[in-house]
Amino acid sequence: MQPKTLALIDDDADYSEFLTQFLQEQGIAVSRFDDSNALLAASEAFSYDFYLVDLMLPGVNGVELIKILRRRTDAGVVVVSGRLGPEVFREVITAGADMYLVKPVQFEQVALAIAAVQRRVAKPSPADAVWKLDRVSGELLVPDGTRIQLSEADRQLLECFAQAGGEPVTREALLNRLGREVVEGDADDGLSATIYRLRRRIERATPTLVPLQSKSRVGYVFRAPLQLI
User: Fold this and answer.
1) Percent share of the chain, pLDDT over 70
2) Looking at the predicted structure, is the pLDDT value of residue 149 above 90?
3) Measured distance CA(74)–CA(224) in Å, rounded
4) Contact 102, 84 (CB under 8 A)
5) Could you tell me the pLDDT band of residue 186, with boundaries at 50, 70 and 90?
6) Cα–Cα distance, 70 to 18 (Å, whole number)
7) pLDDT tens digits for range 126-135
8) Quick check: 20 and 8 in contact, CB under 8 A?
9) How would residue 107 be classed by pLDDT, with cut points 50, 70 and 90?
10) Alpha-carbon torsion angle 104, 106, 107, 112, nearest 10
11) pLDDT surpassing 50 at residue 90
12) Global pTM exceeds 0.70
């Protein structure tokens, strides 16, 4: 199984050209970017089915790029890089990559890695994949069975999302729920940091994709069923 569209982010022109040709022969529509900032500036940056990422890139480095992608998409991400070492592997997997291949690597191996990851990410979520917020224990129950102990701020935010029923919640509503003053025009209100800590708490506990996303110019939305119990 191969994705329909793929973004290749690598500044090695010869490697990218030949790999692109090979993947296109497999029926994949490939878009090449030799600079991570060029990808992020593209209107379709987060709409690709798959991403192949180098680590040594002009613009945002590969690890930071993976983190940005993971905030916006659950598409497959494979790193193909010449950097070696267990600390590098740990860094890219922690950032959200699905697989790590070390250059030099055969194009057939890259295609196999893409297919293997795509089989996982293309699986539909089960209809009963419901997240639950236990208000008594103060825990979040992930569909995979993981239980995550939450802070008071985490609980307040998740209650707000549960009550919204999948609709976006404004920054003002979330700040009010946290008991914080809403100051007009103040972008540095600490909410982004609070949301980030909640996401990281969940990501450290489970490989399940966190369905908490920002909603441009509005606030945030929890894009999965979330029940209060």
Assistant:
1) 93
2) yes
3) 14
4) yes
5) very low
6) 27
7) 545 899 999 9
8) yes
9) very high
10) -120
11) yes
12) no
CA distances from 130 to 44, 151, 221 (A): 29, 21, 15
The two three-digit tokens of residue 67, written as one number: 């983190």
Local confidence band at 83 (pLDDT 50, 70, 90 cut-offs): confident
Two structure tokens written together for 211: 């369905």
Q: Is the pLDDT of residue 31 over 70?
A: yes
* Residue listed under structure tokens 């945002």: 60
Tokens at 125, concatenated: 């979520």
Contacts of 121 (CB under 8 A, 6+ apart): 74, 75, 76, 98
